[in-house]
Specification:
146 residues; mainly alpha; Histone, subunit A
């Protein structure tokens, strides 16, 4: 970095107040000029992390938790909507059944995330693409009965 000269600052002392026939016992006014050093501090940008740092921090935080990630109310609405489409006579669901269904769905989605990430890493990439999801789903169907 190149060195720059610092601008001399004019110091205004609070103790030196003009005393005389025209004095009002107020400190002298500073010049309306902007100080370059103070203006740089006002426009200071917030700290930015490197790309991916915040995502890794969030991943670690979510891996430590045991609570469900999908909000319960939208999931329940979706389950009831799908069940109403296939079987309109079923209108009531036990809370434990919805809870078990949500846990199973989240477990499946997380497993699919992990498999698709492994497919992306195998292809020497960091970004997960659509083809990784498709490959993970195709490979996952081999061990499942449906």
């Amino acid at each position: 970095m190149a060195r720059t000269k610092q601008i001399a600052k004019r110091s205004v002392s609070k103790h030196k107040i003009a005393v005389g026939p025209y004095s009002t016992n107020t400190p002298p006014r500073t010049s309306p000029r902007k100080n370059p050093a103070s203006s740089a501090g006002e426009n200071k940008r917030p700290h930015r992390h490197k790309p991916g740092t915040q995502a890794l921090r969030e991943i670690r935080r979510l891996q430590k938790t045991v609570n469900l990630l999908i909000p319960a109310a939208p999931f329940i609405r979706t389950v009831k909507e799908i069940s109403n489409y296939f079987s309109p006579e079923i209108t009531r669901w036990q809370a434990e059944a919805l809870q078990a269904l949500q846990e199973a769905a989240e477990d499946y989605i997380i497993q699919l995330f992990e498999d698709s990430m492994l497919c992306a890493i195998h292809a020497k990439r960091v970004t997960v693409m659509k083809k990784d999801w498709e490959l993970a789903r195709r490979l996952g169907k081999k061990g499942q009965p449906w």
